[in-house]
């Protein structure tokens, strides 16, 4: 069995869970984990962009991951994003993640200051050293981090035996091909942009990590299954349906994750809102959100 075989399938990017007063909610994180497990996803990506990591303290991020791991009971592959905008806190989160038994840790490069590639490599390697028995995944999201992963940097990072792949959220699908070709024999690239899941899989991604997966896991599970079975027309149809939902989710005044959380709340899964400065749902958003929910329900009913 390959070291990376477990990193296959659909990995929803886990949403931050809050109480009504805005405090991070371990209780709701446990409930949400069990909800996604029942949907049949292969794993979870915890503490990333969808998890509002840059708006949370180190202790809040620890609490969310602890709650996910408690509820998952070893039945899901868990990847913990541990990057902070300083090395010390990132290393602390990496060590904490390993102590909980996560399958892998991941990290974006530091944001704001534009660092040379050797400094980014030092940052990532320091984080990895904080979890020396845990796989490490590079997170490439240049449109938000302001730094693009290059092949020379990727090759430098492969000197670290714990580095096993890339979560690629850049928009050019060809980047997946480039990062797959530049990897070792036992290597995995995750498709990041939800709107191109099938395109990413077709060009070499082994799996997907996505911010809208948890809003409609049934669609992405069916999409992945259709791709694996060679039913490309079905896969394309499902991708188009998901893309239409994503466009609708982004059409509201509120932040997309606030909209998704409201859709989930309407279906009985209340995990709170989003943390400022992200914008929460307003009354004027509700008709559009109800329409989003109906789009998802109709698409799932047709599976």
Protein model, in words:
The chain has 303 residues and is α/β, with parallel strands linked by helices. The chain has helices at residues 26-39, 58-72, 87-100, 117-129, 142-145, 151-157, 174-181, 197-203, 217-228, 232-249, 256-266, 286-301; strands spanning 9-12, 43-46, 77-81, 104-107, 135-140, 163-168, 188-191, 207-210. Helix 1 packs across helix 2 (58-72) and helix 11 (256-266) crosses helix 12 (286-301). The longest helix has 18 residues, at 232-249.
Fraction of residues in helices? Answer: 40-55%
Give the overall pLDDT as a whole number: 97
| Percentage of residues in strands | 5-15%
Number of strands: 8
Cα end-to-end separation:
32 Å
Taking Cα atoms only, what radius of gyration do you get, to the nearest Å? 18 Å
């Amino acid at each position: 069995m390959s070291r990376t075989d477990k990193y296959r399938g659909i990995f929803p990017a886990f949403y931050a869970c809050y109480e009504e007063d805005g405090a991070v909610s371990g209780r709701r994180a446990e409930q949400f984990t069990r909800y996604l497990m029942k949907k049949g996803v292969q794993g979870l990506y915890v503490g990333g962009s969808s998890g509002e990591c840059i708006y949370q303290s180190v202790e809040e991020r620890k609490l969310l991951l602890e709650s996910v791991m408690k509820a998952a009971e070893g039945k899901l592959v868990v990847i913990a994003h541990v990057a902070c905008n300083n090395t010390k806190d990132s290393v602390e989160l990496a060590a904490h993640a390993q102590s909980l038994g996560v399958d892998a840790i991941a990290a974006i490069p530091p944001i704001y200051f534009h660092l040379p590639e050797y400094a980014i490599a030092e940052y990532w390697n320091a984080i990895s050293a904080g979890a020396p028995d845990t796989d490490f995944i590079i997170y490439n999201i240049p449109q938000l981090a302001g730094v693009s992963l290059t092949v020379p940097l990727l090759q430098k990072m492969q000197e670290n035996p714990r580095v096993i792949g890339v979560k690629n959220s850049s928009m050019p699908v060809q980047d997946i091909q480039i990062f797959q070709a530049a990897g070792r024999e036992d290597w995995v690239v995750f498709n990041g942009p939800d709107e191109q899941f099938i395109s990413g899989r077709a060009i070499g991604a082994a799996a997907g990590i996505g911010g809208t997966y948890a809003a409609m896991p049934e669609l992405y599970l069916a999409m992945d299954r259709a791709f694996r079975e060679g039913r490309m027309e079905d896969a394309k149809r499902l991708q188009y349906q998901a893309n239409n939902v994503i466009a609708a989710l982004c059409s509201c005044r509120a932040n997309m994750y606030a909209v998704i959380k409201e859709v989930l709340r309407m279906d009985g899964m209340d995990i709170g809102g989003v943390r400022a400065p992200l914008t929460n749902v307003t009354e004027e958003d509700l008709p559009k959100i109800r329409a989003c929910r109906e789009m998802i329900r109709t698409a799932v009913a047709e599976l």
